[in-house]
Amino acid sequence: MCLMSAALELHGVGVTYATRRGQIEALSAVDLKIEQGEFVAVLGPSGCGKSTALKLAAGLLPATSGRISVAGRPVAGPSRQAGVVFQKPNLLPWKTVLNNVLLPARTLGLPMAAARVRARELLELVGLGAFADDYPFELSGGMQQRVGIARMLLHDPELLLMDEPFAALDALSREALTLELQRIWSQQRKSVLFITHSIQEAVFLADRVLVMSSRPGRIVEDKVIDLPRPRTLETLADDRFTALCQHFRRHFSHA
């Protein structure tokens, strides 16, 4: 029987930076595993290496030590295996929404006719089908981030890497996009590594929540979130949800 490889694995991964003040150890002996179709959120204090771990998975940064693989294949640089969304969608202002979504097709040399069909399908998926010919400045911040999510999905990556994608949004937009992301994930069933500072966001979205220590970052807790899906706004008032949030908050209280 052939066993399916994990979507993402980090084994004994460490990262050390050279700075004017000497060597800084950002990550130390990080072991992380995401199964196919699993949504994993990572919490941790600022500067603990959360974003560094994501950049390693994306192939945007080399590890100093350890091994990294996506779907069983070693990560040696950026590839089609992973799609990335950062805090800001970084849309090109002179291109329409549709053409922004199509950027990976041009970069990766995908057949353009098929890519256009998929781009329009993805804009429908994120609720922006009617805005394909608009420009980024005509959209709200939340709508722009939806364009970024559609762009990430265009080349059908095996792993979605999301680095605080809703951090710059107001509270209501953030709540709406959290629900939207859950809906998209439930339809696409991609594997997700989701970086956030929001305990509620992590508990609401994830199958598992990992907690990282202060620098050098290590995984200090790996907890299954056993709340039923789909999760709704009523979930936020559930006693189990509240208890989980309180559990994780203890990692960050320094009273």
From TrEMBL:
**SUPFAM superfamilies the record matches:** P-loop containing nucleoside triphosphate hydrolases
Protein name in UniProt: ABC transporter
**One matching Pfam family:** ABC_tran
Residues annotated as coiled-coil are none
Entry keyword GTP-binding: no
Q: Which InterPro entries match?
A: AAA+_ATPase, ABC_transporter-like_ATP-bd, ABC_transporter-like_CS, ABC_transporter_ATP-bind, P-loop_NTPase
Q: Which UniProt keywords apply?
A: ATP-binding, Cell membrane, Membrane, Nucleotide-binding, Transport
Q: Which organism is it from?
A: Corticimicrobacter populi
Annotated GO MF terms: ATP binding; ATP hydrolysis activity
User: Ranges for the ABC transporter domain?
Assistant: 10-239
- Does the UniProt entry include the keyword Amino-acid biosynthesis? no
Q: Which family does it belong to?
A: Belongs to the ABC transporter superfamily.
